[in-house]
Amino acid sequence: MVIGFLIRSGLVVGAVYYSKKLGVWGSPEESEKFYNCVKSQLRPHVQSLEKQLPFEVPSLPQTGEVRFLAKHYYNQGVKNTFHFIEMLPCYAGQLAKKTKDTFNEFAQPPPKSSN
């Protein structure tokens, strides 16, 4: 459990660091430059995939749509963070109860076999 959490945390930190290094979290001009660079690099690959797929792939979103989606998901992240903080006492109580129950279960002697 701890190792999985450390691996996930490391991946998130690495992704944030790398995206910051690329300019995603910089000024709006840097972010738009990065977006246009990625879009132009993906265009040939998308076109080759479109020929192989039996359905039509939607075009990449425009810059305005990306801004809207970024704001939307940022706001959702803030709301979910505050919801988690609000529920933290409840989660802590549940964890304490489960921990207590588990230790009580371990403290019980094993059942006697009927041999």
UniProtKB/TrEMBL annotation:
It is a single-pass membrane protein. It comes from the Eukaryota. This is MICOS complex subunit MIC13. It comes from Musca domestica (House fly). PANTHER family: MICOS COMPLEX SUBUNIT MIC13. Its main location: mitochondrion. Component of the MICOS complex, a large protein complex of the mitochondrial inner membrane that plays crucial roles in the maintenance of crista junctions, inner membrane architecture, and formation of contact sites to the outer membrane. Keywords: Membrane, Mitochondrion, Mitochondrion inner membrane, Transmembrane, Transmembrane helix. It is found in: Mitochondrion inner membrane. GO terms for biological process: cristae formation. Component of the mitochondrial contact site and cristae organizing system (MICOS) complex. GO terms for cellular component: MICOS complex; mitochondrial crista junction. Belongs to the MICOS complex subunit Mic13 family. Pfam families: QIL1.
